[in-house]
Amino acid sequence: MKELLQQVINGLSLGSIYALIALGYTMVYGIINLINFAHGDIYMVGAYVGFAVTTSLHLGFFPSLVISMVVCSILGVIIEKVAYKPIRGSSRIAALITAISVSLFLEYGMMYFVKAETRTFPNVLGKNSLKLLDGSVVIDYKNIYIVAITIILMVALQYIIRRTKAGKAMRAVSLDREAAQLMGVNVDRTISYTFAIGSALAGAAGVLVGVYYTTINPLMGIVPGLKAFIAAVIGGIGVIPGAVFGGLFLGMIETMVSAYGGSLYKDAVAFAILILVLLLRPSGLLGRNIKEKV
Amino acid sequence: MSKKVSLFMSLILMLSLFAGCSSKATGGNSDKIKVGLNYELSGNVATYGQGLVEGIELAFEEINKNSGVLGKQIEMIKVDNKSDNAEAANVSTRLATRDKVVAILGAATSGNTKAATPAAMQNKVPLISASATADDVTVDSNGKVREFVFKTTFSDSFQGVMMANFAYNDLGLKKAAVLIDTTSDYSKGLSKNFQDTYKKLGGTIVTEEAYQAKETDFKAVLTKIKGTNPDVLFVPGYYEEVGLIVKQARELGLNVPILGGDGYDSPKLAEIAGRDALNNVYYSNHYSSQDNTPEVVEFKEKFNKKYGKDPDAFNALGYDLAYFLADALKRAGAADPVKLKDALAATKDFEGVTGKITIDDKHNPVKSITIIQMKDGKPTFLKKLDPQ
């Protein structure tokens, strides 16, 4: 029982990170039907920005989180303008290949600048933890930060999408781009907003991972990127609550398989679930509600 | 996989054909002896490769200053294998065929050394690793000794056996949990020998769990291990993951001793795990700079003068490796790879800073092992264990 509780906490922290990255995938897919494979690498850049800000400027956790989100959102918009906008009318395979190229470019471009070696993120949050039930369940403050920041960002995202003009435009463009354009929505700007918000979330995830796991390297975005993509698909790609649900679901499954099955099979189980979902519910577990699409 | 291997083999065959066309001289006629260095200078185990190369460079510098070997200067050809199996194989082929070196030193890890082996065997160039601890580096799957492959470090079986002895006899711990890296031969080798010996001694293995290199989240598996109440946790792995494992284990309140092998030996370990988490951690190593024998003290002084820091085990192993090669070259009497191979195999009681080395009939050295204890992130010399 105590062990289960601890595993739930482990799963929630891991799942929150997947959820944050998955949101960016799902937002971009919802609006221009592009699987942005460079998204995992934006998360990596976010971690490095956080690292640079905390080690050379000696700023605390929250300023570095904000700076990293800002830098990543600018990077996301630049990537969209330079790489994706010129081929927006081309076939989907061309867009996909471009996305993969951007991903490789970011990975190896970063490696050129920061070298391949692993860096250690400074401990900016201290070492406190809560011990429950005679120390058999340990909640690190970092776990609380991760889950809390994830929830705050998701609430903010919901607010932007539901209550602001830009959010309304996003929903309109994702529903029917041409009709939205005819109604006077600036489609280019809306797409830029989407990339900016999605990338900012990835940047936040990068800093959180840096703080939580302490090691960062230029290829750190590949596996979480893939997992977040799976999370987005499981939840229903293009559906925002689906990404959150998918991320938490995947984090929990991985943890529980490690805990009660075999630690060796956790990736196999994650992919098996993906295949099952694609077979049984191709639009994802929460994929029916088209109106939620952004 | 087999297709890849056969493609690779045919590539080597083709390359050796080309090699046959050019002159057969292996550097023996020139006034220099060429030695190839195939090391991990970048990538995820770069600190091992860089450490070894620092030691090798210091040793060859000294040797060259003292008029070289056989009246000739040693010329190093240093190539980066990027901590990658395929690249290690390429580098080995290049050194053997294009540069025509008399011997190849490297690679640092067992996996990369094994990848570099076929090219060395094919071209009949001795390959010596100072840190590949896998048992099957010098011996193939049929138990046949690889003629041109040598190592100057103890084997995984030996590290696993000694750590099991240490845990059971010295620390008096009877219940062990094992956490292995399934992507690494090194980790699996140590784990198997640890478990066999530990059970033979009368201990129980309460659980065996696994992870994969480059993972960052170990909390699920560590929580599970904590639930089995072990006395000791054996984690034969490399410093990147081990650092995170130690950190996360301590965060979860799993405070039992953590034991491992020489893969822990890197300043990055303390950086990743954090100094206060690195207590009650023991590992087997080749050498400790706190060892007070005269050879070690002298080596420390020389190393400090050149690099401005204390040498670690990889520096010491690299230093020994270079002198080990020079010693065999002298006994071979010529810079000829085949004569060198015979001289290497006949090495007896070579005195190095990491201990006295005698090469046995399987091309493995017989030498003692050092146990290091981590205290607040600082490696401290605990004791030396001799082979039984």
UniProtKB/TrEMBL annotation, chain A:
Compartments, as annotated in UniProt: Cell membrane
UniProt superkingdom: Bacteria
Any Pfam family hit: BPD_transp_2
TM spans (from-to): 12-35, 65-84, 93-114, 144-161, 193-216, 228-252, 264-281
One GO location term (cellular component): plasma membrane
UniProt entry tagged with the keyword Transmembrane: yes
Entry protein name: Amino acid/amide ABC transporter membrane protein 1 (HAAT family)
Automatic annotation (TrEMBL), chain B:
The organism's place on the tree of life at top rank: Bacteria
Keyword set, alphabetical order: Amino-acid transport, Signal, Transport
Ribosomal protein keyword on record: no
Keyword match Cytoplasm: no
CDD domains from the UniProt entry: PBP1_ABC_LivK_ligand_binding-like
GO terms under biological process: amino acid transport
InterPro entries, alphabetized: BCAA_transport, Leu-bd, Leu_Ile_Val-bd, Peripla_BP_I
Residue ranges of every copy of the Leucine-binding protein domain listed in the record: 32-377
Membership in a protein family: Belongs to the leucine-binding protein family.
Name of the protein in its database record: Amino acid/amide ABC transporter substrate-binding protein (HAAT family)
Species per Swiss-Prot/TrEMBL record: Fonticella tunisiensis
